Amino acid sequence: ETKTEFIEVFSNIAQNYKDHVRLSESDVLAAKNVDVNEINFQIQNKIAGELMAHKSIYSVINQDDDVNYPMEVLNSPELSRLPPNNLQLKIESVIIMLRGINQSRLYIGTGFAAKKLMNNVIESTILKGKYKGEDVLIPRIFLIPNDMPFYFKRLPFPVRQFR
Description:
This protein is an alpha+beta fold. It contains five helices and nine strands, in the order H-H-H-H-E-E-H-E-E-E-E-E-E-E. It has helices spanning about 1-5, 15, 20-25, 35-45, 70-75, and strands spanning about 50-55, 55-60, 85-90, 95, 110-115, 120-125, 135-140, 150-155, 160. The strands form three sheets. A five-stranded antiparallel sheet has the order 7-6-5-4-9. A two-stranded antiparallel ribbon has the order 1-3. A two-stranded antiparallel sheet has the order 2-8. A hairpin with an 8-residue loop joins strand 6 (about 120-125) and strand 7 (about 135-140). The longest helix has 12 residues, at about 35-45. The chain is globular, with a radius of gyration of 17 Å.
């Protein structure tokens, strides 16, 4: 109930979703990422367009562990310090960079508007700052969490929906 009431704050999102600067200045803060993800998903549903899911790609580093950890286990962790396992976006979604990439303009905290959603790259426009209005390509990047009982590589997009 409280989440639904909270979402009413964004009641005009369906009409104003292309006002990227305004949207990039509003945040959803919650104690748990699962709550933020649920609220973002509900807000996303108010925006016109097709919702596209971009699931992370996994591989176990030690092949001996491959049998011990089925894909369901690899797909389940939503760790707060990692990008979302299942990134769900629409064209015009506002996203924020979670991991810096050794490439000009792709800094942690930079806000973007998604223009084109592809399997391995998100074409987007920078929303603020020195490079405002410039288009960039955001690739998937390899991450290896070191606090799990086994080692695996995860290939997510280094962004999260930003609200």
